[in-house]
Design brief:
With 827 residues, the chain is α+β, with helices and mostly antiparallel strands. It is 54% helix and 10% strand. The model is unreliable at 823-827 (pLDDT under 50).
Length: 827
């Protein structure tokens, strides 16, 4: 009998997981027709990781460094396989089998596990999974290719589930789930989501501590906390190679502290404050949690053919009014652009407010606190005194940009509190009077607010946007009218869904419908509400054929021309959006690229030198100055050996004959005191004839005189991403400069097989002093953080696997013992 029940439970759980898979693929149905998602960030990833992947496929090894983006950078945040992390392999195969549906599947399973841990009925948990997994933001990030963020959000639910289980029911099971969940969470590779999840758990921990002290359970609380700390250490050990490498690298990226002293008021030990708060959630825009069209949708949401804008375009005789309608933007928030609203779901917000009235104890307070914290932090620049304080003093907070992303906390705390309320109602823990009071208030607040904006949309503000100045006066009023209409219609829509949800809940309470009917109707309503909104931001239009996707990675005529060049290494500069587009990295060694973790010094060179030089180059070419005279003025781009300029993919590239090459000897050097002087000095020298050296490296050149040698040469003879080999020759001691990015943590230089120090020059390049004569110079990238870290990761993986295996063996033995005892008693 026991075995029958066990297999029945397993069958039900397997059926629910299968349902999640079916629903996920139903939403992404074009995948089953052989189509693919057009994901911007995924396209960027494929381009950025191409050199790393090619090297891995050819050698079976990790390059860890790529020269395909931003002149050269570590691959930790691009594509590095951590094979010593055994859990990484499992996660990788899961993604490979189900991608991109894996993201939705993870959302659904993760939240289902979280609710199940908290003793929520499995059918309610099913509805709750839909509420979390189909919240609009969760779908939008799939559409823009934020794969690591999506996986991190799914695994975060396991982390939260483990922590709550440890404190509420079974500390050992909870700690193990916490360890496995945190391991997978870190593997997902989105530290910002992990950080925000830990912030939410911090609120939970403080609340739990207060209740433990009040309930005289402090010893138990401390014991569980200690066990979770051990579990966290184990998860960190499994991921040690990735974490330690990333930690060391992060200090050198734009998320580390700059050595430049200008603009100090906006500087932190991490990102620049202005950069951090660029994507802040407007205070009034927070209402998109309840009403999806409150701010007009996304920056690509346009009015329809029944709109006032279309009517006025036709009346004014605008040629092709349908096409002109595409330039009319309904979004009217203050963000530079947005892919869509943070719509939690009208029913979810209603249930959240209901939960505030019917849930008792610590759960209500920590979930309310975390939700409010999430919303407050998302406002960013609109509460700048608080944001500035946190950026300065809250550890690691200044490493992350886009405050609006903190709303991912509310994304799970709101449905969680709502479904805990339904759990308590279902279990009979909520009295009739209490429930009716909660229903009235929840409906009055959420339904009333939605109805108010539906009837009086004008009270929401001016409906104007910063970019409205581009519209003629005769069109602007129609645009504003369409924005109001969108608010009105979506507010009515939210009111209807809230009314339906409140209605079936009341009927369920009055026993007019069975529990099974209520669960099914609730799940259907939630899924319908969210699904219809989601489809506006990730729908049929976002899929393409495999042939079209392949075309994105087919060399253009300009690429094909460059690929004829058989030299081992040179760089290519695309003029169209060079710092935000990684396409060229798929084919070439790119001066530009797309990365939120580029080297800080390289970004500073972009700001101070590369971008101004590009502007000057374009201006000179437009004035029809001779290409050679224009290229000769590219003082810093030339030192990167920028040989080709991509200005039109369908035409031959411009050939920059002034590029300095892979390396050169410079007879003159200048010692400077700090980073400010170093970056400024590049405006005062010719980089092929003089070298700027920070005083920290002065000992390498002090007291030396380097004579000009017309016969001296540096020639690159062998290239791999993590290995460079040169043949050099000179009749006297020389100062050699290489057109490669300096990165001390892993790159080592060798002269004739003997390790030889090298140093930084010209703010970002490598340099070294070479004795007279012919020499073989090699650069090898072998970061200790990665290779030594792999050993720790392997040990951590084995320990965690043993813990998991031990748990299942113990569970199996306990089941057997219970079964045997039961049989003996029966006999």
């Amino acid at each position: 009998m026991e075995k029958t029940n066990l297999w029945r439970k397993i069958g039900i759980e397997a059926g629910i997981i299968l349902l999640f898979i079916v629903v996920s693929y139903a939403y992404l149905f074009p995948l089953l027709e052989g189509k693919e998602l057009m994901l911007h960030d995924t396209q960027s990833y494929r381009s950025a990781s191409k050199e790393l992947a090619d090297f891995r496929n050819a050698t079976g090894e990790e390059a860890i460094w790529t020269n395909a983006m931003f002149g050269g950078m570590p691959g930790y945040m691009i594509s590095v396989v951590y094979d010593s992390n055994l859990f990484y392999r499992a996660e990788h195969w899961f993604q490979k089998i189900f991608h991109p549906a894996a993201m939705i599947i993870l959302y659904l399973i993760g939240f289902y596990v979280l609710l199940s841990v908290l003793k929520v009925n499995k059918w309610l948990s099913l509805a709750g999974a839909f509420a979390f997994g189909f919240a609009t933001y969760m779908i939008i990030i799939i559409g823009v290719g934020h794969t690591s963020k999506a996986h991190a959000l799914g695994y975060l639910m396991l982390v939260v589930a483990g922590a709550l289980m440890a404190y509420r029911s079974n500390r050992w099971k909870g700690a193990l789930l916490f360890a496995v969940g945190l391991t997978l969470e870190i593997i997902a590779g989105h530290p910002q989501i992990t950080y925000y999840g830990l912030l939410a758990l911090f609120v939970f921990g403080i609340t739990e501590l207060i209740y433990a002290v009040r309930g005289k359970r402090l010893a138990a609380f401390l014991g569980t906390t200690g066990l979770l700390v051990v579990a966290a250490i184990l998860a960190l050990a499994v991921n040690f190679s990735y974490l330690y490498s990333t930690y060391r690298y992060s200090k050198e990226t734009i998320r580390g502290k700059s050595e430049l002293t200008h603009n100090q008021e906006n500087q932190t030990s991490g990102l620049d404050k202005n950069y951090v708060v660029q994507w802040s959630q407007g205070i009034d825009e927070t209402l998109t949690l309840l009403i999806p069209g409150f701010m007009g949708g996304s920056h690509t949401t346009n009015p329809g053919l029944e709109s006032e804008s279309y009517k006025i375009l036709r009346e004014k005789g605008v040629e092709n009014p349908r096409q002109a309608l595409g330039s009319v933007i309904l979004y009217h928030g203050d963000k530079p652009f947005t892919s869509g609203p943070y719509y939690a779901g009208a029913i979810v917000v209603f249930l959240f407010v209901l939960g505030l009235f019917v849930v008792r104890g610590a759960d209500k307070w920590w979930l309310l606190g975390a939700t409010l914290l999430s919303i407050l932090l998302s406002w960013g620049k609109y509460v700048m005194p608080l944001t500035s304080f946190l950026l300065d003093y809250l550890p690691f907070y200044n490493k992350f940009r886009a405050p609006e992303m903190t709303l991912v906390i509310a994304g799970f705390t709101m449905p969680l509190l709502g479904f805990l309320g339904l759990r308590d109602i279902s279990a009979g823990k909520v009295g009739k009077k209490e429930l009716m009071k909660g229903l009235k208030w929840a409906f009055g607040i959420t339904g009333g607010l939605a109805l108010l904006f539906a009837l009086l949309p004008g009270i929401a503000g001016s409906f104007s946007a910063p970019f409205d100045t581009s519209y003629p006066d005769w069109l602007l009023q129609a645009v504003i009218s369409d924005r109001q209409a969108m608010l009105r219609s979506t507010a009515f829509r939210s009111f209807i869904f809230i009314t339906l949800a409140a209605g079936i809940l009341l009927l369920w309470h009055l026993k007019k419908i069975k529990s099974s009917g209520f669960y099914a109707l609730l799940a259907l309503l939630i899924l319908t509400d969210l699904w219809l909104v989601d489809k506006k931001y990730l729908g049929e239009k976002d899929f393409t054929t495999k042939k079209q996707t392949t075309a994105l990675f087919t060399p253009s005529p300009a690429d094909a021309e460059i690929l004829k060049d058989q030299d081992l290494s040179f760089r290519v500069l695309p003029l169209q959006n060079p710092w935000q587009d990684a396409r060229a990295s798929y084919f070439h060694k790119n001066v530009g690229g797309y990365s939120a973790a580029k080297l800080r010094r390289y970004q500073e060179m972009i700001d101070h030198h590369f971008s101004p030089e590009i502007e000057e180059m374009i201006s000179g070419l437009n004035r029809q100055q001779s290409p050679d005279s224009v290229f000769n003025r590219l003082n810093t781009l030339n030192m990167l050996n920028t040989r080709y300029i991509l200005y039109d993919l369908n035409n031959r590239p411009l050939v920059n004959s002034a590029a300095w090459g892979n390396g050169w000897f410079s007879p003159e050097f200048r010692i400077v005191a700090n980073a400010d002087e170093e970056i400024e000095a590049l405006n005062q020298i010719v980089t092929k004839e003089q070298v700027v050296i920070d005083k920290r490296f002065a000992s390498f050149v002090e007291g030396k005189n380097f004579a000009h040698d017309s016969t001296a040469m540096i020639r690159l003879t062998e290239y791999r991403p993590n290995y460079l080999k040169y043949q050099t020759g000179a009749s006297s001691e020389q100062l050699a400069v290489f057109s490669e990015i300096y990165y001390a943590d892993g790159w080592k230089a060798y002269v004739n097989g003997k390790e030889t120090p090298h140093f930084r020059a010209n703010y970002i390049l490598r340099a070294m002093v070479l004795p007279e004569g012919a020499h073989t110079v090699e650069f090898r990238f072998h970061p200790t953080s990665f290779y030594a870290g792999n050993k720790v990761s392997l040990a951590g993986s084995v320990l965690l696997l043993l813990a998991v295996a031990g748990f299942f063996v113990r569970e199996f033995r306990n089941k057997n013992r219970i079964n045997k005892t039961g049989l003996q008693e029966k006999d």
